[in-house]
Structure of Pimeloyl-ACP methyl ester carboxylesterase:
Amino acid sequence: MTVKLAYEAMGDGPPVVILHGLFGSGRNWASIAQALSGSYRMYLPDARNHGASPWADTMCYSHMALDVLELIDREGLQRPVVIGHSMGGKTAMALALEYPHAISGVAVIDIAPEAYADQFSPYVNAMRGLDVAAATSRREVRQALACRLDVDAPVDFLMQNLQRHNERFDWRLNLMATAVCMQDLCAFPSELLRQRYPGPALFVAGEHSRYVRPESRAGIVRLFPRAQLQQIRDAGHWVHADEPEALIQALRGWLAETIPLPATS
């Protein structure tokens, strides 16, 4: 069943949709969207089971692509460009491969159309293992979460999912569904590997990230024959946080090629 995604929007111009990654929300991309909003109407949806969007039992990429398609239809967006990071990048690829005529182009940030090892179940298990309803402060929850995870775990990023509801803390992320669907989230739908997206595509990788490897290029170009590949120096997987200005420059240049803006008098 399709989920009606919550979203925020800003700016004016041709429509651009940005899809966030696992454990995130649309607000993670607000500064990037703001930088582009002078030329484009930017849409920042929360994925199913994330942020303010409804919860659902499934999280396969075909279903999440349909969620985005429903948003496009609901808001009457005329073939938007779709940008996606990590989980959102896989959703964007699924949308492009299954419904190519619904979009004008796709930009994928630091992810490839391939399966990855599960690195995220320890985060989900740690979050599920906390009795956050009994906590008296965010600091208490953060300390308990940090104690359960490795020192390099993105604790502050995960803590963005903690909310106070009716005088008690809870997680706005659907941890149960995320745990059950982790295999789907780490994979890429095998049926989509037979598809091709003929439109413009941009793949951006962080220099220090291991998600887009040199051997990933062949798989990318096979599915997205018009793909441009760029690398952002000094960035890891969270390119938009590590080197936001470089990413904005890359997106702005590619968007200008993909959606020519009307000339100003």
